[in-house]
């Protein structure tokens, strides 16, 4: 961390603490409302059954809905949100790939991910790919907001925001124990306890998840995972003569050890056994830990409230994984090419399977460790104020944030021989492949003003991002390779909501979207910039809900990054970013729900979520990005399903409930363009050109039975028809969706 950053961060923290110390002069008394008001400020979407009058397509998945299916996988949770496009990877959602409204889902890099309203990605500005994602088990609500309100939640405003709300300190003694076991040696232990005594409250929560995995490593070996998460909160409430206050300290720790791999299969081997894993992946392992400290202060007056948060996140990971074959003597092979065209690469395929031994130097297997250290820290403050100016009532919402984050890459590579169906070190010295550092200091501000003209509510907003990035190559002899750059941008927005009745209304919005480039990218790589439009309507009478939104994203320059998860074919362009020119993305988001009362004893809740999305490049160009290649105007974006549909049907009585969720996902294009030979005679290979995944349907079941004072038992079946399809061929070959898994559990609340 630079001295300049340290000074600024320290000054910000001291300023915040000084302000809080001054506010302690208020007289302490009991207050029952301050905590609930604070909870609302860490959420994006209001919790209630009334018609929401904010513009923007908004979806709230409440604690009741999360409890219904008890998913551990955020991908399955987000199936109930329209406008979300996901590329599955490992079947468990360990490292999700989430996009909104056609934005690339790759490592969720283009959405703003928050926990309790605070940026939670490892380094959201310097390295936005979210290799850390909070356990969804600890969320009591999941909120997705797309459209003009995304202007509040930078840095990425092209797509939208995802906010996970963790459990709040309870007002009285409250606890729960949740235990479950299942197929593939699945085990879950989840418990929490909290209480408020006088003005002081606390919460302790712990989660452990593990599974042996569903994949089968040739020759035997682990393919599962273990994850742990601990959350502790303390808060203190004050009521003064003029102001009410709440102070909260949050601490959390999470770790993961998973024997997961990027290596997939040939299509032929997938057809024979989709869960097979080749010998070449036997050393693949991911280890990580995440630590967070956050201090929050909530100040409430008669017509305003201010929420201030100081936060620090530290994340470290080591990922040992198959990188590729060794390049030697002008001979090389790419694993993606081998698996895409096995008939032309039988020798290399046999090496991946462990069927033959290494003979030549170019047949050696390279295993890399993408070791990385991240931190992110900052202070942010947000104001809500209701006032009258020029005879009009103004609802002002404004915020300011200073954020500093950093990624330190220490990538290494070791070479191995295949010997008798095992990977054996060849004794060569370890090679450092990437040794660099990226750091960002960013100030951001936003202001929104909502005015009411009868039944019409209008909101004018603007966001400013002022970013200073620094890149330093730390490899020996490359110390002079560095880059300092600045980005300054203002992003306007406008939205309107017209109330047709107490149950229905129309919405419209337009805002400018923005995604910055990373600190290492030269000025020739442009920011991603767009103008996004939406128009739709809502209906909510307390029993039936409906929302339909048409959206159009006019992207002036699409930007993509060549991460390892996106493609093995990055070569020396790993983590490099590419310009894609003008792109249009448009579609329809639709959701509806209704609860039918069959009689006095049974309810039948039904909901439907549908998303239609289409896209096209507006210009023709040649690109080294492995998912593009030679693009012709009119080509579609990769990994963007045209149609997605989710249907929920339940049957509920006083002490039991059964629910089914069926999800349909359309086919996905693996690469937009084709291989090409440039003007310089250099050939760029796009092995997955024209290849698509098959459309597939997955049905999950959940059932629970209340034992009244003795708790609840539940049964969960994911993929009840045990259908498996190819969900991705990146970076290395075909990988499957999760097979059928059965879980039984017991939950006791006290």
Nearest-angstrom radius of gyration? 26 Å
Helicity range of the residues? under 10%
Low-confidence stretches: 1-31
Number of domains: 1
Say which CATH homologous superfamily is assigned. TonB-dependent receptor, beta-barrel domain
Beta strand count: 40
Q: End-to-end span in angstroms?
A: 46 Å
Q: According to CATH, what is the topology?
A: Maltoporin, Chain A
Q: What amount of the residues lies in strands?
A: over 45%
| Mean residue pLDDT | 91
Topology of this protein?
Elements: H1 3-23, H2 34-41, E1 58-61, H3 63-69, H4 74-77, E2 84-86, E3 98-100, E4 112-115, E5 118-119, E6 139-146, E7 160-166, E8 174-182, E9 186-197, E10 200-211, E11 216-217, E12 225-239, E13 244-258, H5 267-272, E14 276-277, E15 285-300, E16 304-325, H6 335-340, H7 346-353, E17 365-389, E18 392-419, E19 422-425, E20 431-453, E21 456-473, E22 482-499, E23 504-515, E24 528-540, E25 544-557, E26 559-561, E27 577-579, E28 583-597, E29 603-617, E30 621-622, E31 630-631, E32 643-652, E33 656-665, E34 676-677, E35 683-684, E36 696-706, E37 712-718, E38 726-728, E39 735-736, E40 741-749
């Amino acid at each position: 961390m630079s001295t300049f950053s340290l000074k600024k961060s320290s000054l910000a923290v001291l300023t915040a603490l000084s302000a809080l110390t001054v506010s302690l002069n208020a007289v302490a008394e009991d207050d029952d409302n301050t905590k609930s008001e604070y909870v609302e400020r860490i959420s994006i979407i209001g919790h209630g059954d009334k018609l929401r009058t904010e513009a923007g397509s908004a979806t709230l998945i409440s604690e009741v809905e999360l409890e219904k299916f008890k998913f551990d996988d955020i991908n399955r949770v987000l199936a109930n949100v329209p406008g979300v496009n996901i590329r599955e990877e490992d079947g468990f959602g360990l490292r999700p790939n989430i996009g909104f409204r056609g934005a690339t889902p790759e490592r969720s890099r283009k959405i703003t991910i928050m926990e309790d309203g605070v940026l939670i990605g490892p380094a959201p500005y310097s390295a936005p790919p979210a290799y850390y994602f909070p356990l969804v088990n600890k969320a009591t609500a999941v909120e997705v907001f797309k459209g003009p309100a995304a202007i509040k939640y930078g840095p990425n405003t092209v797509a939208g925001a995802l906010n996970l709300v963790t459990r709040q300190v309870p007002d009285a003694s409250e606890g729960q124990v949740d235990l479950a076991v299942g197929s593939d040696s699945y085990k879950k232990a989840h418990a929490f306890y909290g209480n408020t005594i006088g003005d002081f409250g606390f919460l302790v929560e712990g989660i452990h998840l593990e599974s042996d995995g569903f994949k089968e490593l040739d020759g035997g070996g682990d393919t599962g995972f273990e994850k742990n998460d601990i959350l502790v909160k303390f808060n203190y409430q004050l009521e003064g003569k003029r102001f009410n206050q709440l102070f909260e300290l949050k601490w959390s720790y999470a770790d993961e050890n998973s024997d997961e791999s990027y290596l997939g299969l040939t299509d032929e081997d997938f057809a024979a056994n989709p869960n097979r894993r080749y010998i070449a992946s036997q050393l693949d392992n991911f280890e990580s830990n995440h630590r967070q400290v956050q201090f929050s202060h909530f100040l409430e007056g008669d017509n305003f409230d201010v929420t201030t948060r100081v936060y620090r996140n530290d994340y470290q990971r080591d990922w040992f994984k198959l990188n590729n074959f060794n390049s030697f003597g002008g001979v090389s092979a790419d694993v993606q090419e081998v698996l895409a065209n096995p008939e032309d690469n039988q020798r290399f395929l046999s090496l991946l399977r462990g069927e033959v031994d290494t003979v030549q130097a170019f047949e050696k297997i390279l295993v890399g460790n993408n070791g990385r250290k991240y931190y992110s820290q900052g202070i942010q403050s947000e104001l809500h104020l209701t006032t009258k100016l020029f005879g009009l009532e103004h609802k002002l919402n404004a915020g300011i944030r200073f954020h500093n984050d950093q990624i330190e890459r220490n990538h290494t590579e070791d070479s191995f021989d295949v010997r008798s169906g095992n990977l054996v070190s060849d004794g060569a010295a370890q090679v450092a492949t990437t040794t660099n550092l990226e750091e960002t200091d960013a100030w951001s501000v936003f202001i929104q003003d909502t005015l009411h003209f009868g039944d019409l509510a209008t909101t004018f907003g603007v966001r400013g991002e002022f970013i200073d990035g620094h890149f330093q190559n730390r490899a020996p002899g490359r110390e002079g390779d560095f880059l300092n750059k600045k980005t300054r941008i203002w992003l306007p927005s406008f939205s309107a909501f017209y109330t047709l009745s107490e149950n229905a209304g129309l919405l419209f919005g337009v805002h400018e979207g923005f995604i910055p480039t990373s600190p290492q990218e030269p000025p020739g790589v442009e920011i991603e910039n767009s103008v996004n439009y939406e128009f739709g309507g809502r209906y909510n009478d307390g029993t039936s809900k409906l929302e339909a939104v048409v959206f159009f994203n006019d992207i002036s320059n699409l930007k993509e990054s060549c991460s390892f998860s996106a493609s093995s074919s990055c070569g020396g362009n790993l983590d490099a970013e590419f310009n894609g020119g003008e792109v249009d993305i448009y579609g329809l988001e639709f959701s509806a729900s209704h609860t039918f009362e069959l009689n006095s004893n049974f309810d039948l809740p039904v909901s439907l979520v549908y998303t239609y999305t289409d896209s096209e490049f507006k210009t023709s160009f040649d690109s080294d990005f492995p998912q593009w290649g030679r693009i012709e105007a009119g080509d579609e974006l990769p990994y963007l399903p045209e149609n997605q549909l989710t249907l929920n049907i339940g049957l509920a009585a006083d002490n039991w409930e059964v629910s089914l969720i069926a999800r349909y996902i359309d086919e996905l294009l693996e690469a937009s363009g084709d291989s090409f030979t440039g003007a310089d005679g250099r050939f760029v290979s796009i092995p997955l050109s024209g290849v698509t995944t098959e459309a597939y349907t997955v049905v999950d079941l959940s059932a629970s039975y209340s034992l009244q004072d003795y708790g609840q038992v539940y049964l969960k079946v994911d993929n009840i028809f045990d259908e498996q399809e190819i969900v991705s061929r990146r970076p290395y070959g075909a990988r499957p969706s999760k097979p059928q898994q059965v879980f039984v559990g017991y939950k006791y609340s006290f």
